[in-house]
Amino acid sequence: MAANSRGRAPGSPRARILVVGGGYVGLYTALRLQKRLKPELRQGSVEIVVVTPDPYMTYQPFLPEAAAGSISPRHVVVPLRRVLDQCKVVIGEAQSIDHAKRTATVTTLATEEEGTGAVEITYDELVLAPGSISRTLPVPGLADYGIGFKTVEEAIGLRNHVIEQMDIASSTRDPAVRDAALTFVFVGGGYAGVEALGELEDMARYASRYYHNVKPEDMKWILVEASNRILPEVGEVMGSYTVRELRRRNIDVRLETRLDSCQDRVAVLDDGSRFPTRTVVWTAGVKPHPVLAATDLPRNERGRLKCTAKLALDATTHAWAAGDAAAVPDITAAEPGTECAPNAQHALRQAKVLADNVVAALRGRPLTDYAHKYAGSVASLGLHKGVAHVYGRKLKGYPAWFMHRVYHLSRVPTFNRKARVLAEWTLAGLFKREIVSLGSLEHPRAEFELAAGGQRPKESS
Ligand SMILES: Cc1cc2nc3c(=O)[nH]c(=O)nc-3n(C[C@H](O)[C@H](O)[C@H](O)COP(=O)(O)OP(=O)(O)OC[C@H]3O[C@@H](n4cnc5c(N)ncnc54)[C@H](O)[C@@H]3O)c2cc1C
C-alpha cells in the first residue's frame, strides 16, 4: 500500500485508523472498532487498517497446552481476515513511525518479493500494539542453542524436539548422547516457563510408557530462576506450593540461580553445575518491541510507550497504545506511579477502553480512564494439575487446573475457537494422548531433495 494510495491524506473526509499489531490488543481493538463504527464504515467516512506480520492472532496462554498436544496448533490462533471482515488486514511489519507526519513505514511480503523497499501508510489515528519480545541476556551460546516460548511455531517446534530427543535417547548406544538428549533446561520461572515445563514434562512422562528403554526417572527437567520464587502472578503461598509440586515430580527447581553459558551444548549454571543438554528454553521475561525505538513517540526508561490512563500517548494527540508495549498507569494501585503489568488480563481490558476512547475522540465525546484491579492468576502444570490465586481464593491440583481451562475457554476469542478447543478437550478425554512428533514438517522438501540427489538437512537444534 503506497503512501495515500487509498486516497487518504490527513484532513480528508475519510479517517484512517491504523492498528499496528494483530495480537491481543490489535485484534480486540479492531474488533470493537469495527463493531462500534458500523455506521461510519458503511458510509465510508472511516477505514480501519491492521498491519501485522502473521495472518492470525495467537492466544498465548494456550501455547503450553499446544506444546503438550492437548490443543492443535490451528486452534490456538484466530484468523484475522475472517474475524476482522470490516478491516483491511495488511500482512507486514511496521519498521518505523513518524507520528509528526502521521506516517508508518511498512514492509510486506510483497515488498520483499518485489525488492522495492518499504511502503508508507498514512493515518489519522494510530493504535500502536506490537507487544513484547523475549528479554535475553548476553549468555554465551544462547543465540545458537536457545529457543523462546512466545509463538505457536516455538511451542510446536519444542514439542517435536522433546519427542525427537526421546527417540534419540532410545536409539543411541552412547550414554553421553542419551544423557544430553534427556536433559531439558528451562530458564525463567514466570507463567510461560513454568507452564511450558509443567506441560512438556507431563507429556514426556506419559509418552515414555511407549518407549521400551526410556523411563520418567531417566529424564532430567531443570528450572532455573534468578529470584527466590517462581510464578509471582499467583502470590507467594501458591508460588511455594508450585515449587514443592514440581520437586515432587522430580523436577530440579533451582532458585536464586542463573544460566552462565550454554556454549557447546553444555548448560553452565552460576552454582557451578554443568548439564550437557540439547534443550535450553529461555522464558526469562519480556521487553517492549524494538520498533518502538524507531518512532517519535514518548517512551519511559524501560522503553515502553508512556500512556495516560485514557490509553492515549502522553503529551501526544491521535496516538494510542495498550498491552505489553505500553506503560499504562494502574490507577487502582495504592502506590502512585505503579504501571499495569504486561499480561493478557490487562491487554484484553485495555483494548476495549482504547477502542471506546478512539470512537469517543472521533465523535467528539469525553474519554474514559482505564481502571482494573488485578484479579490474580491461574496456571496449568500439566494434565489435571494446576495452581490458582483468583479474587483472594487459592486453589491447587485438579480444581485449579479445571478453573484454568474454564477461564481460558471463556477468554479465547470467537465462538468458533471456543467450540473447537472444547471439542478437542472432550475427544482427548475419550482417547489416549497424541505422542507423535511431526518435526519433519519443518523440512518439507527434505525427502524430495534426497530423491533429486541432494543431502538430508542436518538437525540443527
Ligand atoms: C506462553 C505464554 C503464556 C502466557 N500466559 C498468560 C496467562 O496465562 N495470563 C495472562 O494474563 N497473560 C499471559 N501471557 C501474556 C500475554 O499473552 C501477553 O501479555 C499479551 O499477549 C500482550 O498482548 P499484546 O497485544 O500487547 O501483545 P501480543 O499479543 O504479543 O501481540 C503483538 C502483536 O504485534 C505484532 N507485531 C510485532 N511487531 C510488529 C511490527 N513491527 N509491525 C506490526 N505488527 C507487529 C506481533 O506479531 C503480534 O501479533 C502469556 C504469554 C506467553 C508467551
TrEMBL record:
GO MF annotation: an example: oxidoreductase activity
Domain FAD/NAD(P)-binding intervals: 16-345
Keyword entries, A-Z: FAD, Flavoprotein, NAD, Oxidoreductase
EC number: 1.6.5.-
SUPFAM superfamilies in alphabetical order: FAD/NAD(P)-binding domain
Keyword Oxidoreductase belongs to the record: yes
Gene3D superfamilies referenced in this protein's UniProt entry, alphabetically: 3.50.50.100
Superkingdom of the organism of origin: Bacteria
Enzyme class: oxidoreductase
Pfam families from the UniProt entry: Pyr_redox_2
Protein family: Belongs to the NADH dehydrogenase family.
Name of the protein this chain belongs to: NAD(P)/FAD-dependent oxidoreductase
Phylogenetic classification of the source organism: Bacteria, Bacillati, Actinomycetota, Actinomycetes, Kitasatosporales
